[in-house]
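beta-aspartyl-peptidase (Eucalyptus globulus), 325 aa
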Amino acid sequence: MVGWAIAVHGGAGVDPNLPHHRQEEAKQVLARCLNMGISALRSSLPAVDVVELVVRELESDPVFNSGRGSALTEKGTAEMEASIMDGVGRRCGAVSGVTTVKNPISLARLVMDKSPHSYLAFAGAEEFARLHGAEVVDNDYFITEDNKGMLKLAKEANTIMFDYRIPTVLSDTCGASVENPLQMNGLPISVYAPETVGCVVVDAQGRCAAATSTGGLMNKMCGRIGDSPLIGAGTYACGLCGVSCTGEGEAIIRGTLARDVAAVMEYKGLGLQAAVDFVVKERLDEGKAGMIAVSRNGEVACGFNTNGMFRGFATEDGFVEVGIW
């Protein structure tokens, strides 16, 4: 028996001028979801059930970029993706291109539990959802007025926007970012603050699980798939640990970030925090990202090379923390 532990995130990369009320709103959502996970763990719910429960709640709140409140494609629609992984047997399920399923993370769970496959996308994922009774809604459900405004700004700037929570006028923050543009696959982007959500859990039996969900990038090309649904890139769980990543998806994919944490723990003998630090430092090249992780020993860890990361942690011995910077 080990002590349980849980970590949640709402994305790495935060506008340094994010209004205080936005910061507090995000922290309140993280705290609520963290407490939901704590209650579930105290009730002896298995780790894989807890990560699904918590991410469902994050998807249902428009504060972060997943489910309701997802970033919009170049056509003004929401195309969502999610993945879940159970460290017991390394079972996994993932979906991409979901446009009507209310909770993509639960569809990923259905793929894991009810299909012979690990990954379904677009029309196939939607058809599978209806076959198995997943709750569906109109695409408009996922679209907020904030995101309509940020898509308009992205189109006017002719760019992919990572941060769709920056105030809806081009502030000095945006201007500074344009003067020193970050790049994604060699192309400039104007601002950076992705807000994918994720949860990692180890339960009292030492079982690890991870789940990640996102709407992707503001003004992304239709059909673009990021790291969040890719097992080993955005999400990974095994007997050693559970990991959920957030940030520049293309860089996370290239570095197979989530799997690398487990790999350096296994092959280099690093502890959890040391493994996270190593991967963030050595595997991102010029990319920007962050991650949360738990180990089978009841540890929690996080790492990021951005201004901040929306995050929360709790362990059975009473440690609780919610932070951004």
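Confidence is low (pLDDT under 50) at residues 163-194. DSSP finds nine helices and 14 strands in the chain. ok done for today
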